[in-house]
Amino acid sequence: MRIITADSYLEEERNTTTLEQDNQNLDKTVLEIIQKVRQTGDQSLYDYTEAFDGVKLTELLVSEEEFTEAAELVDGNFINSLRQAKQNIEEFHQKQLEKSWFFHKSSGITLGQMITPIGRAGIYIPGGKAAYPSSVLMNVIPAKLAQVEEIAIVTPPQKDGKVNPYVLTAAREVGVDTVYKIGGAQAIAALAYGTETVSKVDKIVGPGNAFVARAKKWVFGDVAIDMIAGPSEICVAADGSAPTAYIAADLLSQAEHDERARTFFITNSTTLAEKVRNEMYIQLEMLERKDIIKASLQDFGRIIITKNEQETFDLINQIAPEHLELMMENASDKLPFVKNAGAIFLGNYSPEPLGDYFAGPNHTLPTSGTAAFSSPLGVYDFMKKSSIIQYSQEALLKASEPIIHLAETEGLTAHANAIYQRRDGKNAQK
Questions:
Q1: Mean of the per-residue pLDDT values for the chain?
Q2: Based on the domain organization, do 260 and 337 belong to the same domain?
Q3: Quick one: 293 and 398 in the same domain?
Q4: Which contiguous run of DSSP H or E holds residue 236?
Q5: Is 405 part of any known ligand binding site?
Q6: Is 363 annotated as a binding residue?
Q7: Tens digit of pLDDT for each residue in 380-426?
Q8: Which of 323, 325, 352, 363 is catalytic?
Q9: Does residue 1 lie in a domain region?
Q10: Which domain of life does the protein's organism represent (predicted)?
């Protein structure tokens, strides 16, 4: 993990084109998969599952028997932990609920905004390198609170052709009955356009690998999506008050997700930078996924030395990290300096895994700098807003002149005519 200055990092980022090149290479394959799914439906899903996952399926939908079997395979401690996390996540997201509102502007005029849930949501739950029951909670609970009518999960099967039992148990715990044993770009295409077995959805949410992310980009417009997520990332900004072991452990916690996970440690202390790097490699040797972590740190890990606190926060806002930890004295006082971050963890006892699993805020977060203009997944992602306008005859007549003037200024005489007809009667266009 290299130690560099803030200026060196920014210069490095300006000259990086790897992601763009990777996306171009991925897109050809992804678009072919999407087109195949649209053309041949279920058969393409069976074929791609065999080709990519090494599994020959006979049924795409998880059966009731498989749910029952999964429940028997998980232990009681998992269930208890899951339910505690579920309670915290529900409590947090409950506060995001919005209500329809109306107001009477004046006599004869009622305006408002009506809130309604989307009809059907498709949720992608990753598989492959790990199982993510926590992602089931984080994605399904907001949809349930929004009162989405139908929720379907897609997730890659294990080598035995079944879905991970912890994922299935989490799905049943939050009230999801429809789970499809498909993953990758083909699962996104199936949700976006429908097949003989998979029903088309209105919105697709949930994290996934690069193929999933690019597929979501290409189906957007035909269906809504939450975000185009990149590899996971963490940024820890710390001063000498933070224990070295804590900083190192938190950086490693995100690097284990994926070889392309991005890890940043920002400090204005060269001494602390060296201590943290040494501690990371000590802890690394004790971890099961150390090969993934090593690859991530080597290619995408950076320890960045800043001149002062101002430069530290300027850099944080430039990176706009998915997860930001402020391990500083009086960390909460520094919060106003943060403009761009998906989730912010304050102090030495608010590590990133607390947010991943238990605290309550959502762990489906904007990545790759998109926290500069997007937000964590929430109940609002599953709601629609409709504007309400009601004028009486008298109120419309009072407003007729400016409406006609604006319409005619824009050359839209049919717009003006709709007002003339109500004001002056039949054949009243002037």
A1: 95
A2: yes
A3: no
A4: strand 233-238
A5: no
A6: no
A7: 999 999 999 999 999 999 999 999 999 999 999 999 999 999 999 86
A8: 323
A9: no
A10: Bacteria
Residues 311 and 337 sit within 8 Å (Cβ to Cβ): no
The reported pTM is 0.92
What does residue 261 show for φ and ψ, rounded to 5 degrees? -60, 140
Please tell me the distance from the alpha carbon of residue 129 to that of residue 107, in angstroms, as a whole number: 62
Q: What is the CATH number of the domain that holds 347?
A: 3.40.50.1980
Same domain, 104 and 245: no
Q: Active-site residue among 66, 256, 279, 322?
A: 322
**Gap between the Cα atoms of 85 and 83, Å rounded:** 5
120 and 251 together in one domain: no
The tokens for 427 are 């054949």
* pLDDT exceeds 60 at position 430: no
What kind and span of H or E run contains 122? strand 120-124
- Tell me: do 242 and 273 sit in the same domain: yes
The answer to whether residues 419 and 400 touch, using CB atoms and an 8 Å cutoff, is yes
Q: Decide if pLDDT at 18 tops 60.
A: no
Strands 178-180 and 203-205: unpaired
Domain final residue pick, 227, 250, 280: 227
User: What is the pLDDT, as a whole number, of residue 13?
Assistant: 85
Q: Has residue 358 been placed in a domain? A: no
Is the same domain home to 297 and 310? yes
Q: Considering its fold, how many domains does the chain have in total? A: 3
Q: Is 254 assigned a ligand-binding role in the annotation?
A: yes
Tell me: pLDDT of 427 over 70.
no
* Residue 323 assigned to a binding site: yes
Which H/E stretch holds residue 347?
A: none
322 tagged catalytic = yes
Answer yes or no: is 376 within a domain: no
165, part of any domain = yes
Known binder of ligand: residue 232? yes
209 annotated as ligand-binding? yes
Calpha distance 282→244 (Å, rounded): 12
Tell whether the torsion through CA atoms of 3, 9, 228 and 17 is positive or negative.
Answer: negative
**Band of the pLDDT at 70, cuts 50, 70, 90?**
very high
3-class DSSP state of 324: strand
> Which comes out higher in pLDDT, residue 145 or 131?
145
Has 357 been labeled as part of a binding site?
Answer: no
Give the pLDDT confidence of 218-275 residue by residue, as tens digits: 999 999 999 998 899 999 999 999 999 999 999 999 999 889 999 999 999 999 999 9
* Domain limits for position 320: 231-352
Rounded to the nearest 5 degrees, what angle is found at the Cα of 181, between the Cα atoms of 177 and 187? 105
Same domain, 258 and 149: no
